[in-house]
Amino acid sequence: MLDAARDPAGERAGERAVLPVASPVLLLPGQGAQYPGMGTGLYRAEPGFAAAVDEVFAAMGPAGSVLRADWLAERPAMPMDDVTRSQPLLFALDHALGRVLLDRGLRPGMLLGHSIGEVAAATLAGVFRLQDAVRLVLDRVDHLTSAPPGGMLAVAASRAELAGKLRPGVDVGAVNAPRQTVLAGPAEPLAATAKALRAAGFTCAPVPSLTPFHSAALESAVHTGHRSLVGVPLRPPAIPVVSGYTATLLDATTATDPGYWARHPVDPVLFWPALESVLASGARLLVECGPGQGLVTLARRHPAVRSGNAQVLALLGPRTADPGDEVARFRAACARLGCSTDRPAPRPDERACRRFR
After folding, report:
1. Where are the alpha helices (DSSP H) in 126-218?
2. What pLDDT shows up at residue 296?
3. Which residue range is the domain that position 165 belongs to?
């Protein structure tokens, strides 16, 4: 989610001499990371990535064809921040980038997803079958379209500093850094909260979202989401996943609990505590496996990165008006990770994807 206050010194700390790349950790972003044209340059230039994205679109059925056409259109019909675009596309790109890395031989030590990024992480780790994860995402989007209008606000303050300052209906949606908290809620109380916080001297910035993710305003989605998950086969993760909601390793009991996944739209994301758990394990390289570089920008604030004991890498780099830029960045990132640049043999389920091209 949007970074309220950048730290140039921290950014430089993540770009020192190359450290040994052993079991890198993949960070999969969520709402707020989306931007127009994200991933389209790579899609047109990298057949393996295109096949992985098309695999997700194919699993969506007719909705996938519509989503793909709008994503690639010069003038999309729907704004990127609309829940019907941001959520399924973020899932598709996060999952596809991770899939390509795995197919090219990368063996990550851990996965950490932010919001919808955790569903992508769990799918890569084998908790969900792809078709079941896609069904979960589309079902969630369908119910969230009826949510009250609202949004999210990044504030340069700790959770404790904001205690007692939020209007009724506004909740803490994410703890992204020690002094970067994201608030969420319906439009009117969120706007009133933002006005009061700015008057009190706090720096605030809107997160690109038209939906109040991770707030009580979405409580109804929990009940419908739980029903849709009943009977879905869930498995313990084959790759370690650090939960962005508990800040601990996702164990077999939690991973196979439908209620855990159903509560994602309402419960706050504890990204910074989860990142602390990742870096406490001795992780040396954090890789943003999705559009933009919001999560590694947050990670650059961590003492382990600032000191040079850990480093960061973004597969697609910063938001750019030139989709071709992400191709060069992706290939450079793969080279640094030691991934093969050859296109892997198509998996059997990719045959259905070829109808898109």
Report:
1. 130-144, 159-162, 187-199
2. 97
3. 150-207
pLDDT at residue 222 in the model: 73
- Provide the H-helix boundaries in the chain: 8-13, 40-45, 47-59, 62-72, 83-103, 116-124, 130-144, 159-162, 187-199, 219-229, 252-255, 258-262, 271-280, 294-299, 303-306, 324-337
Instruction: Tell me if 3 sits within 8 A of 154, measured CB to CB.
Output: yes
SS3 249: strand
Q: Are residues 240 and 94 in the same domain?
A: yes
List, as own/partner pairs, every contact residues 70-74 make where C-beta atoms lie below 8 angstroms and the sequence separation is at least 24, other chains included. Answer: 71/40, 72/40, 72/43
Widest CA span in the chain: 58
Whether 144 and 175 map to the same domain: the answer is: no
Q: What is the pTM of this model?
A: 0.89
Q: Which of 158, 173, 207 is the last residue of a domain?
A: 207
Question: Within a domain: residue 3?
Answer: no
User: CB neighbours of 111 closer than 8 A, spacing ≥ 6?
Assistant: 25, 26, 28, 98, 121, 124, 125, 237, 239, 240, 241, 242
Residues with pLDDT less than 50, the chain: 2-21, 344-357
Find the CATH number of the domain harbouring 183: 3.30.70.250
What separation in angstroms does the CA of 237 have from each of 29, 101, 252, 255?
19, 18, 7, 7
> Can you tell me whether residue 21 is helix, strand or coil?
coil
Q: Is residue 349 part of a domain?
A: yes
Q: Looking at residue 2, what is its pLDDT?
A: 43
Are residues 320 and 347 both part of a single domain? Answer: yes
Q: Tens digits of per-residue pLDDT, 143-189? A: 888 888 899 999 999 999 999 999 999 999 999 999 999 999 999 99
Rounded to 5°, the CA angle 305-97-41 comes to: 105
